[in-house]
Design brief:
One of its GO terms (biological process) is glycosaminoglycan biosynthetic process. By secondary structure, the chain is an alpha/beta fold. The chain is built from 18 helices and 14 strands. Helices cover 45% and strands 14% of the residues. Helix 1 crosses helix 3, helix 9 crosses helix 11 and helix 11 runs antiparallel to helix 12. The protein binds nicotinamide-adenine-dinucleotide (NAD) and uridine-5'-diphosphate-glucose (UPG).
């Protein structure tokens, strides 16, 4: 029986390896993590992350061929294939601070594999890493291995999006496997391809060299984020001219060369990946002495910041140029719908702007825990604990959150926001009652008929 171990039971390691176990009953999968609390949650009825369909997958194979454990060494010792799916955040200090990926977790995981392994291993980079990281991993493994053990390194970047992770994993557009172009590299590539081939058609499993595979992951995220910044840049032109950004995106998306996906204007993209991976690409370009290339990609992030500030300024301007002591309901705190993840959520930046203006914020999100909101806002970058206590309140219902507020600001595109009883909401609000749709999901005509003052990204009032 093939044995797989995954280092890192996070948003990627958990769902990815759970789906492997689900689709490959003949493979034993053990997901390990240094964080024992997270492992305990994976072994409980309340999984540590919310992802549609994940519960069913985990419950179907946990204890059968899927195991969650804090015993990292045992997982490494027993496995034939080891996924490294640890976090690679943007560096906060030192060389490359604010841009480069912090590879400390990848390195420490690699050193642990080298120290513990007693049999040959195929080590698979699942984390998103800068180009040529596999080379450093190989050097560490070869220099630190106790006996003369063979390690083969593969790059197998993950393309799942949160909120649709299980569907993406069950039916991926492609599975990418990079390896050294040597007979041993090809053999390792085949061993991993055979696992995916349990459910992914062979023609969707594509293979290439290590460096192309590593770079493809950064490139895919950069191209996706670039589309959003492009449509958001157009949204500013629409607001100034009377064009409608949804109509413009629709017209452009019908061109088969452009395609309709990822052209939804918004208050800005969030999530743990886009900004981090573009900054990583910017750093890589600078390191390669390609300043024009670096500047080009950096603009995608600059535009995203501009979009968030632009929206905050719109709210303040429409509320008669001051929101001091006004009450605003923030609908949605997650970075997108169908996830409880708040990493780099635009809501954090928007609330920061509002708190700087001394507004009172009522937050409602169907999936984000109050403790998470406090963690995100109560930090030196956003608000002091006193400010948080006196100016932020988290609610369990959108109706409660909207009571006695001057404005509602929609920041996440949760489906439930489309079908609320807005007459009831309107009646409970201060007048004039404003609603700002940062996700273009609401029926503005209906809202105006009720009496709301409505503002939408990418459309004139
Ligand atoms: N979140 C996504 O949607 C997504 C999608 C594709 C790729 N990625 C990439 O995948 C990687 C992981 O992302 P994530 O969102 O799952 O991160 P995460 O923070 O949710 O999970 C990472 C986990 O790794 C654990 N860890 C760190 N060092 C370890 C070690 N030495 N041994 C065992 N466990 C260790 C941490 O405790 C943590 O639980 C990142 O490189 C990210 O860029 C993320
Ligand atoms: O047309 C769009 C599409 C998305 N977004 C926003 O963009 C952000 C990212 O959304 P999405 O890409 O759907 O979610 P992620 O989970 O961040 O997934 C991205 O990042 C992952 C981590 O690298 C990759 O694996 C995925 O392929 C890539 O889509 C969110 O704030 C969305 O609201 C828009 O504003 N407009």
């Amino acid at each position: 029986m093939t044995k797989i171990c995954c280092l890192g039971a996070g948003y990627v390691g958990g769902p990815t390896c759970a789906v492997i176990a689900y689709k490959c009953p003949d493979v034993q999968v053990t997901i390990v993590d240094l964080n024992a609390e997270r492992i305990a949650a994976w072994n409980s009825d309340e999984l540590p992350i919310f992802e549609p369909g994940l519960d069913e997958v985990v419950k179907a194979c946990r204890g059968r061929n899927l195991f969650f454990s804090a015993d990292v060494d045992k997982g490494i010792l027993e496995a034939d294939l080891i996924f490294v799916s640890v976090n690679t955040p943007t560096k906060k200090s030192g060389v490359g601070a604010g841009f480069a990926a912090d590879l400390a977790y990848v390195e420490s995981a690699t050193r642990r594999i080298a120290r513990v392994a007693t049999t040959p291993k195929i080590v698979i980079e699942k984390s998103t890493v800068p180009c040529r990281t596999a080379e450093s991993m190989r050097a560490i493994l070869e220099a630190n291995s106790r006996q003369n053990i063979r390690f083969d390194i593969l790059s197998n970047p993950e393309f799942l999006a949160e909120g649709t992770a299980i569907a993406d994993l069950m039916n991926p557009d492609r599975v990418l496997i990079g390896s050294l172009q040597t007979p041993e590299g090809f053999a390792a590539q085949k061993a991993l391809a055979d696992v995916y081939a349990h459910w992914v058609p062979r023609e969707k499993i594509i293979t290439m060299g290590l460096w192309s595979s590593e770079l493809s992951k950064l490139a895919a995220n950069a191209l996706l984020a670039q589309r959003i910044s492009s449509v958001n840049a157009l949204s500013a032109i629409c607001e100034a001219t009377g064009a409608d950004v949804d109509e413009v995106a629709y017209a452009c998306g019908l061109d088969s060369r452009i395609g309709p996906k990822f052209l939804k204007a918004s208050v800005g993209f969030g999530g743990s990946c886009f900004q981090k991976d573009i900054l990583n690409l910017v750093y890589l370009s600078e390191s390669l002495h390609l300043p024009e290339v670096a500047e080009y990609w950096k603009q995608v992030v600059t535009m995203n910041e501009y979009q968030k500030s632009r929206f905050a300024e719109l709210v303040i301007r429409r509320l008669f140029n001051t929101i001091t002591n006004k009450h605003l309901a923030v609908f949605g705190f997650a970075f997108k719908k169908n996830t409880g993840d708040t990493r780099e959520s635009p809501a954090i930046t928007l609330v920061k702007h509002f708190l700087q203006e001394k507004a009172h914020i009522h937050i409602y999100d169907p999936k984000v825990e109050e403790s998470q909101i406090e963690l995100d806002l109560c930090n030196p970058d956003v608000a002091t604990p006193e400010q948080y206590k006196s100016h932020v309140k988290v609610y369990n219902s959108p109706y409660e959150a909207a009571k006695d507020v001057d404005a509602i600001v929609v920041l996440t595109e949760w489906d439930e926001f489309k079908t609320l009883d807005y007459r009831k909401v309107f009646n409970s609000m201060n007048k004039p009652a404003f609603i700002f749709d940062g996700r273009l999901i609401l029926d503005t005509q209906k809202l105006r008929k009720i009496g709301f003052q409505v503002e939408v990204i990418g459309r004139q009032a």
